[in-house]
Amino acid sequence: MTEVNPQETYTQELSPVVDPAGEAPISITLINYNQDEITERNDINTADCQAYLGQDTFTWIHVQGQPRPSLLMEFAKLFQLHPLALEDVINIGERSKTEFYENQIMVILGIPIKKGTQIINKQISLFLGKNFLISFHSGDKDPFRAVRRRLHHPDAALRSHRIDYLLYVLVDVTIDNCFPILDEFDDEIEQVEQDLFGPAGVDTFQNLYTIKRELLVLRLKLRPQREAIRMLMRNDNNLLGKETKIYLRDCYDHSVRLIDVIEIYRDMTSNMLDVHLSLVNKKTFLSNEVQRKATVWAMLFAPLTFVTGIYGMNFINMPETQLPYGFFLVLIGMIGLGIILALIFKKRGWL
Fold first, then answer.
1. What is the tens place of the pLDDT at every residue in 102-155?
2. Which of 74, 155, 239, 269 has its CA 20 to 30 Å from the CA of residue 53?
């Protein structure tokens, strides 16, 4: 467990990594709640959050968009966030993981989004304290909008649990948001499979290779999430209750299912690549077979063409031209030569 230096001034410089999809506008939403009442404020600043920390309630602060280093410094001073954790938030594309600090837990996950042939990982960073939870999402669409609606329901289970249960809900929503991209891959694989056995079967290599490459990238992005959740539910930390760890098992099962489905899709694409290569080899073999037979038939008629060429010169001194049956004798000789050549080619397996 890493300890936070209480004298940390948080003045170190943070260099943000630019999101390849473009920076999203920043919005901060605060929800302060307990079992009896709830307050939600939108588009606030860090100074507005301080008034709710001393209350006997739970506070959830959601930052939508990629925060600037200066904004992170303000959060760090207010919530005593560890400097190393801030670097993980500002640097988009961090590997999913769980880190434990003094009186804090940090969880980094990701929601993959497919744009064309590129997979972009929208990072989600969660900070759990004694009575607060801070969530950062680098995308332009809030994935936790439905969770906020649930919190406003007076009989919602979220209202009757501690703040660690909200952490479980956000982790669960994050994992479930990874399944739609698998549905996209399922549709693509089904379409490629239909094309593979269609008229354009041998022309699907590029699509198959692209899908296989994307699945590999997706596995590299999602596989660490399984380990992050396992570490979260197995660590002995007083910020997570035993009941919440039981719920986290469901998130772990979902993450395992994600990896299993990806592995199944990769096996399917590998099998289809083998089928594609077999079709290409079969087409090449048939093409070579046709060319071979055409060559044999050309060789078969080559001597006959030579004989007819010679006798087409109409020389008077050719002895066969003086015989009454000379034409028929030459014709029979040509047929006999063709039969002999055909038998020789057949014996050698050329025909």
1. 888 999 998 988 887 788 888 999 999 888 999 999 878 889 999 989 988 888
2. 155
pLDDT in tens, 212-224: 888 888 888 889 9
Two tokens, residue 305? 């063409």
* Nearest by Cα to 119 from 173, 66, 174, 181: 181
pTM of the model: 0.72
267-285 tens-digit pLDDT: 888 887 777 677 666 666 5
Write out the two tokens for 320.
């066969």
At residue 316, the pLDDT reads 58
Contact between residue 87 and residue 17 where contact means Cβ atoms under 8 Å apart? no
Strands of the chain (E only): list them: 27-33, 38-42, 58-64, 97-101, 104-115, 118-128, 132-137
Q: Would you say 210 and 117 are in contact if contact means Cβ atoms under 8 Å apart? A: yes
pLDDT of residue 87: 83
Domain spanning 282-347: which superfamily? Answer: Magnesium transport protein CorA, transmembrane region (1.20.58.340)
Angle at 177 between CA 272 and CA 140, to 5 degrees: 115
Q: Which amino acid, residue 4?
A: V
Please check whether residue 169 is in contact with residue 107, taking contact to mean a CB–CB distance below 8 angstroms.
no
3-state secondary structure of 132: strand
Quickly name the fold that domain 27-279 has.
Beta Polymerase; domain 2 (3.30.460)
Q: Count the Cβ atoms, other than its own, within 10 Å of residue 167.
A: 24
**Residue 313 DSSP label:** T
Domain ranges of the chain: 27-279, 282-347
Could you say which DSSP state residue 202 is in? G
Give the model's pLDDT for residue 260: 93
Measured distance CA(230)–CA(253) in Å, rounded: 10
